[in-house]
Amino acid sequence: MASDLDTQSFLASPQLKPREGDLFNIDAALTEEERAVRDSVRAFVDEKVLPIIGQCYVDGRFPKELIAEMGANGYLGANLPEEYGCAGLSNVMYGLINQELERGDSGIRSFASVQGSLVMYPIYAFGSEEQKKHYLPKMAKGEIIGCFGLTEPDYGSNPAGMITRAKEQKDGSWILNGAKMWITNGSTAQVAIVWAKTEDNDDSGKSIRGFIVPTSTKGFKANGQKGKLSLRASDTSELVFDNVHLPADAILPKSGGLKSPLMCLTQARYGISWGALGAAIACYEEALAYSKERVMFGRPIGGFQIQQVRLADMLTEIVKGQLVSLHLGRMKDAGTFTPQQVSFAKRNNVNIATDIAREARRLLGGNGIVAEYASMRHMANLESVYTYEGTHDIHSLILGQAVTGMNAFGG
Amino acid sequence: MASDLDTQSFLASPQLKPREGDLFNIDAALTEEERAVRDSVRAFVDEKVLPIIGQCYVDGRFPKELIAEMGANGYLGANLPEEYGCAGLSNVMYGLINQELERGDSGIRSFASVQGSLVMYPIYAFGSEEQKKHYLPKMAKGEIIGCFGLTEPDYGSNPAGMITRAKEQKDGSWILNGAKMWITNGSTAQVAIVWAKTEDNDDSGKSIRGFIVPTSTKGFKANGQKGKLSLRASDTSELVFDNVHLPADAILPKSGGLKSPLMCLTQARYGISWGALGAAIACYEEALAYSKERVMFGRPIGGFQIQQVRLADMLTEIVKGQLVSLHLGRMKDAGTFTPQQVSFAKRNNVNIATDIAREARRLLGGNGIVAEYASMRHMANLESVYTYEGTHDIHSLILGQAVTGMNAFGG
Amino acid sequence: MASDLDTQSFLASPQLKPREGDLFNIDAALTEEERAVRDSVRAFVDEKVLPIIGQCYVDGRFPKELIAEMGANGYLGANLPEEYGCAGLSNVMYGLINQELERGDSGIRSFASVQGSLVMYPIYAFGSEEQKKHYLPKMAKGEIIGCFGLTEPDYGSNPAGMITRAKEQKDGSWILNGAKMWITNGSTAQVAIVWAKTEDNDDSGKSIRGFIVPTSTKGFKANGQKGKLSLRASDTSELVFDNVHLPADAILPKSGGLKSPLMCLTQARYGISWGALGAAIACYEEALAYSKERVMFGRPIGGFQIQQVRLADMLTEIVKGQLVSLHLGRMKDAGTFTPQQVSFAKRNNVNIATDIAREARRLLGGNGIVAEYASMRHMANLESVYTYEGTHDIHSLILGQAVTGMNAFGG
Amino acid sequence: MASDLDTQSFLASPQLKPREGDLFNIDAALTEEERAVRDSVRAFVDEKVLPIIGQCYVDGRFPKELIAEMGANGYLGANLPEEYGCAGLSNVMYGLINQELERGDSGIRSFASVQGSLVMYPIYAFGSEEQKKHYLPKMAKGEIIGCFGLTEPDYGSNPAGMITRAKEQKDGSWILNGAKMWITNGSTAQVAIVWAKTEDNDDSGKSIRGFIVPTSTKGFKANGQKGKLSLRASDTSELVFDNVHLPADAILPKSGGLKSPLMCLTQARYGISWGALGAAIACYEEALAYSKERVMFGRPIGGFQIQQVRLADMLTEIVKGQLVSLHLGRMKDAGTFTPQQVSFAKRNNVNIATDIAREARRLLGGNGIVAEYASMRHMANLESVYTYEGTHDIHSLILGQAVTGMNAFGG
C-alpha cells in the first residue's frame, strides 16, 4: 500500500543531512535554488548591512546608500513578474529575502516590504498598464522610492474609519485632503500611494480608492517622526495633504473599497512573517555564539542549564516559525492561501521574535544593552513590528472570528 | 529563473483548499492516502474509543476489548514491513495513527506505542530471524502483547545506572534479577522486552543487552500501580525479576549497549510527538464546540475576546506542532532524521499539549472537571507523557548539548 | 524627623528572625497568637487529614469522620461571634485556618468554606435572631451541615439569570421550584441555603431572597456528581426542587436581591484566597523535600539549576500570595475591605497555585502522578477552585471594570 | 480569645479607605508621614523630571541640573544619619523615594542609588570618622558625586575573580592598576569607591579592600560608554587605573574581603526593588490613562476584554511587588533582613516591571514607540536593571541555594 510513498518525501531536498546550526534541518525543506537565494542575501547583509547598521540605528538614520544595490540584486518587488523589470521569484524565495534582510535590521526589511508589497504590488494589481510600465521597472531598481499612506492617527486598527478624502472635480481631476501617520519611507519617497475615501458619507470604507501621488506635488508635506525608540534605522514620517491637486490618471483604476489596501497589507504581512524570523535568528545566533565564548565561574555560560534551556526555547520557536512561513509560502505559490493564514503567521512569528530578542539580550548580560551587539536593537525594532500591519491583538481577533464565526472586534 | 518553481510547491496536495477546522490547511501537506489513513483511524476512535474511554478512565481500566480491532486495522507496528505481517506504512502515516489514537486517550496511544515501537521494533531491529518470524505477525494482530522494561525506580532519567543484571550461565542460559518501574502494559503483556546489564562492573551501560521474557516465566512478577491520577485507562505496572531463568535464545542477538534501548525510545518518542497533538486537538475541538454553544450574558462565550484569544493561542500551537511532526516524519521517511530532532519534537509537542488541555478545561468552566468531557482527562494524562520517554527537562538538556556542544546533565 | 519610625515597624513580630522554610519571614508579619492558631491547624492536618486524604481522593469520598473534630476545634465559622457558639477569631486567623485546611486538600477547605462562609454567614448576616440561635451553635460544632444553592446549570457566571423561583402562598408559606448545580456538601447537608427569585419577571435579580431549606423536605433531591476528576474528596451534588413547600419563617428576613448571595461569595472568596496558598505550600514543600532526596546523575536534583529556578519561582509566588492575603485580612479586620480586593486576591492566589502545583508535580517526575504524593491531587483540585466562586476570567473583568470604569462582561 | 486582635490590624493606617488608583489600598500599609514623603518626591518628579527626561533620553544625557535639588530635598543617602548631614529617614521612606525617582527614569534612580548606597554607604560603614565627616555632608547635598568601581569586563557575575590590584608601598601608600566597567556616574563623579585585591594570589577575594579615589588623580581615566540602547539618561562609563598613586588614608579602613562590596550591593538592591516598582507604576498609569482615552471601533479600548486582562495583570504584579518591598523595608527597619530576602525582592520586582513595561507599550500601539510616552523608555531601561546588581539568573541561584542548601552557580 505504501510503496509509492517510500520514494517520495515532499521535502525539497530529502537527502540533505542537517548542517551545523540547522538542528531541525529546515534546509531539507528548501530547494537548492532557494538556499542559494537565501545565502546570497545573507552574504549581502553580512557585508553591507551589519558593519553599518548599529551606528545608523544610534544616529536615527536610514542607510539610503544601500538602496541601489538592493535594487540591482533584485530584492525590491522580487515576486513580481520579470516583464516589469522585477526578479519574478517565487513567494518562498521572496520570503527568504525578507528573512535575511531583517536579520540585518527590521528597518531594512521594512523599506523593502513597503517598496515591494505596499507600493509596487498595488500598482501591479490595481494600476493601468501605463502606470505599471512607467513605475515598476524604476521601482525595482530603486530609482523611484515609494511609500504607502493608509493609517491615520485615530484609526490605526480600524482603517474603515479614515478621514482623508479625495474629491473628484468636474474635469475628472482630484483634490486630496487629510493626513497619514506612521508612514515608512515617508520622507524618502518620490511617490506615495495614498488611500482616500471618495465619498463624504462612507462609514464602511467602500468608496476608498488608491492614488499615486508624487511627493513633490504642492500641498504634500512629510514630517519625520521624532523621538523614536524603535526602528531608528528606518524613515517613519507623517504625511499631510493640504488641497493636493491630482490629475485624473493619478487614480489606481482597479482599486475599489477597503479591500484593495487590505490586499496590499496581506502581501506585506506575508513578508513580515518571514522577516521577523530573520530578526529572531540574528538574536539566537548572537546569543549562542556568546554563550560559547563568555566564561563565568570558570566555564562558558553555554554549559549552564539555565542558558541551555533559554537557547533550546529560542531555537524551538524559530524552527516552528520557519515551518509556518514555509508552509504559508508554499500555499501562496500554489495560489490557495488566505488572509487569515497570513494573520496566523504574522501574529505568531513576530510574537515569538519579540521573546527571542529579549531572552538573547538577557543572555548577553551587560553587553546586551549596547548597539555593538544586535539583540537589543532587534528587541526594540520588533515592538514596532508587533504593532504595525495589524497589531497582535487584532490578529488574535481575526483568528478568533475565523474559528468561532463570531466578530469580537468591538468587544 | 524561477520558472520551474512555479509548477512545484512541495505540498503533497498543493491545490487543496482549507477545509473548515483546518485554518492553516495542514491537509495540503498530506497526500490523499495519508488523509485516508488518518480519517479511518479517526472514525475508529469516534466509534469505538470515545463512547467508553471516559468510564474506563474513571474505573482505572485499560479497554483490552479494543486490542483485536486495533490489530486487525494494522495499527500495531504499522511502520514495520509487510513481510512480518505488519502494515508497512510510511512513518508519516504511522504518526497520523498515533495522533488519532491519542485523540482518544493517551493510554490507548501508549499501548500502541509500546507494542509497536518498544516491543516489535527491538525484535525487528535486534532480533534473530526466528524471533521476528515467531513474534511479529502475532504481535501485529494483537495476539501477543508486549511490554518494555528499561526504567528502574532510581534511574528514571539515567538508564545507564540500572541495577538489573542478567548473568550468563555456563550453558549459555541466563539468570535475571532486578526490578523495573512505570511499565506500560506490564500486567497485560505475555512477553516483556527486558534490558539488563550483563557485567557486574559497568557504569556506562555498555554491557546492556535485551531479552525476550515470557511473563509466565517463574520468578517474574508484575504489580499494577495503585493510585494513579493520570493515564488511568492504561496498565502501568512494576516488574520484579527474582532469579528468572531464561534460555540462551532469549537474548536479542543484535542488541548491544545502552544504544539499543535508546534507539527504541527514539522510535517511541517519534510517535509520541504525533500523539500529543491528537490529545491537543481533542481538547481544542471540544473547547471550540463548547464556546459556540455555551451562552453567558446573552451570547455564546466564543464571541468574547478572552475566549477568542484562548482559542487562537491553542490553534497556533497545534498547527506549529503538526508542522514539526510532519517535517520530522518526512525526514524519518527520507532516512535522515536524528535523535536530537526527535527530542525537539517530543519536548515541544507534549509541552504545548499540556497547556492546550489546561486552557480547554478552563474554557469549559465547571463542566471541565467531569469525565463526560475529555479535556481534563487529557490534561491529567499529558502530565505522564510530559515525564515519560525523556522528561521535558532532559530533552532541554539534549537540545542544549546539541547546540552548544556542552554537556550539562550533571549540572 | 524619622525618630518615631525607628521604633515602629508595623510588623506583628518585628524582632522575629526568619525560620528555616520561611525565607521571606512571613511569620514576622503574624502575631504569636496567629502563628499558634496556624500551627495547631497544621498539626491537625498532619495528623488527621494527610494520612487518609490520598485514599479518600482515589475513592471519591469526603471524609465525614473529620467533621466532629473540625467543629470541636472551632474551624467552622471561626470568624463569627462567640455568642453564637463560634470561635470569634479575627479574619486573619480565619484565613490561616483555611490555608492549613487546604494544605490538606481543597475538598476539606471547601467543606469548611461552605459551612462557614456560605451557610453560617448568611444566617448570621440575614437571619432572624431565632434562626441564628437555632442554627449557628450546632453548625459551629458540625452537628448540622449546610450547603449553598446559588449556581444553576446555565448561569454559572451570571447568577442574575437564575431560573429557580420561590412563590409566596396566601398564607405566607412558599413553594420552591428549580435546580442548582455544583453544590458542595449537597448530599451531606441537613440544611440548604437556597437562593430563588420571588417574582416572575425579574431579569436583574432584585427579587432574589434566601431560604433555609431542610434537605429532608418533600420534593428536595440531591444527586452526587459522577465522574469528577477534581475535588474527588469533596461532595459535589446537583439539587432539584420539585414543589418544595417551605414555611413562612424559612426565609432569611434580611436578605434582599442578588447583593445578599454576592456578600456570601465575598466571604467565601476571602477564605479561598488563603486556602489556595495552603495547596501551593503543600506542593512546594513536597517538591523541595523531594529535590533534596532524589538523586540523579549522582547528585540530588535540587542542586541542578533547572530545579533551583523552578523552586525559586514557586517560592516567589507563594510569598507574594501570602502578603496579598495578609494585607487583605488586615483590611477585613479593619472593616475597610472591598469585594474588588477579594476578587484581586482570589484570582491571583488560585492562579499561582495552579502553576505551582503543576511545576511541583513535574519536579516529582513519574512519582508525581500517584496519589501517594500530593501535588497532582492539588493540581487537579485547583482547577475547580480556579473555576468556582467566580472564574479567573470573571475576576479579570471585575478588576478591569474597577480600574477603567467600563463594563466588559458582555464582550 | 481574639478580643485584643480586634483592635489592632498592624496596618499603618487601618481606617484609610482606598483612594482611586490604589485598588488594593497599599496606602493603608503606610503611615501618614511615609505617604507625605512619597507624595513630595512624586511632585518633584512630575515637575522637574518628567518634562525633560524623554529628551534627555533621546539625547543620551544625564540631567545634572537636577542634582542640586535632589540633594537639597534629602534624596541622597536618605537613610543615613542626620549627624552626617543626611535625612535620617527610615528604610521604608528611603524605598519610597527610590520608587518615585524611578517613576521618572531608571537613570535618575540609578544616580541616587549609586550616590547613596554604593558611595555614601561604604564610607559610612567602612570609613574612618574623618572620611565620614569630610565626604558625607557634601555628598548628601550633591556637591560631591561618587561612583562605585567593582564590576570588571570579564567578571560581571563573579566579582571574586577581579583583576584590579592595589599594591601597598613601603610608605603605606598604594598603587592601583586595573579597569572597571559599567560604572554609573563614572564620568560625572569627583570621587570613585574602587574595590581592588591587595594580594597577588587571591582567588577567593578575601584580600579585597575599598579605596576612595579622586577622579582627578593622575592615571585615572573614565570613558563614557557609547551606543547604549538603555539607561540613556544615565552616565555609564569604563574606568581605567594606570599606576594610580593613592595616599595611605585612601583606604576604607573597615573594609575587608568581598563581603564589604557585597554589603553595598545589598543596600543598592534593596533600593532597586522599590525603584523598579516606580517604573512599573509609570507604565501602568500611562497605559490605564491611554486606555480610557483611546477610541477604536467606537469605544475606548479600556472597555475591551483584552485590554482589561492586560491592565488587571499589570496591576496585580505591581501590588504584589509593593507588598514585597514594604515587608522587606519593615524588616530592614527592624534590623532582621537578610541578603537572600533582598535577592528575592530585586529579582521579582525588576522581572515583573519588565513585563509590565512591555505590555504597557503594547497597549499604547504605535504611540508606544516614541519618547513622548514613557513606557518604551522604561522597557529599555529595565533591561539594564534586570542585568545589573545581580542578574535575574544569579538571584535565582541565590534563592535556589537558600532553599535547597546546594550551590549551583558553577552549573
Automatic annotation (TrEMBL), chains A, B, C, D:
- The record places domain Acyl-CoA dehydrogenase/oxidase N-terminal at 31-143
Query: Which segments constitute the Acyl-CoA oxidase/dehydrogenase middle domain?
Result: 147-244
**What top-level branch of life does the organism fall under?**
Bacteria
Q: State any GO BP term from the record.
A: fatty acid beta-oxidation using acyl-CoA dehydrogenase
Family named by the database record: Belongs to the acyl-CoA dehydrogenase family.
Keyword field: FAD, Flavoprotein, Oxidoreductase, Transit peptide
Identification of the protein by name: Acyl-CoA dehydrogenase family protein
Tell me which Pfam families the record gives: Acyl-CoA_dh_1, Acyl-CoA_dh_M, Acyl-CoA_dh_N
InterPro entries recorded: Acyl-CoA_Oxase/DH_mid-dom (IPR006091), Acyl-CoA_Oxase/DH_mid-dom_sf (IPR046373), AcylCo_DH-like_C (IPR036250), AcylCo_DH/oxidase_C (IPR009075), AcylCoA_DH/ox_N (IPR013786), AcylCoA_DH/ox_N_sf (IPR037069), AcylCoA_DH/oxidase_NM_dom_sf (IPR009100), Glutaryl-CoA_DH_mitochondrial (IPR052033)
Acyl-CoA dehydrogenase/oxidase C-terminal domain: residues covered: 257-403
Q: Which GO terms describe its molecular function?
A: fatty-acyl-CoA binding; flavin adenine dinucleotide binding; glutaryl-CoA dehydrogenase activity
Q: Per the entry, which co-factors are needed?
A: FAD
